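A further point concerns the way the authors explain their paired sequence and structure data. For illustration, here is how one protein appears when written out as sequence plus structure tokens:
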Amino acid sequence: MIQTSYETEVEADTIVVGFREISRFYCDGLGQELQAELEREEFARCKHILVDCAQLHYANSQFVEVLLRLSRLCEEKEGRFALCCLQDFLQQVFQVTRLESRWPVYASRDAALTELNGS
């Protein structure tokens, strides 16, 4: 069962994926669902992806799979991938798994968008 747990929007050349608070992270098929959504025409001109984790208070290894999938989409478009607003638990996960060195992480959404969009 897929529970929609994100929302998408466009800010300049960046697709912002905001994951919402959920009690469990239902990921079976979520990566494919999200990838299909991001391949829609209204997202075609965007080459960067920002994952906003401000509302995310739970994640598991399947969430990391989704991040890897999104990161690959950016690489295919020669864009950049970043995250922002990581909660303490997610910062710890990133430290333990050494993902903090793989992608840039910004304290705020505004800071991330400024960097990604070059404004």
Summary: The mean pLDDT is 84.
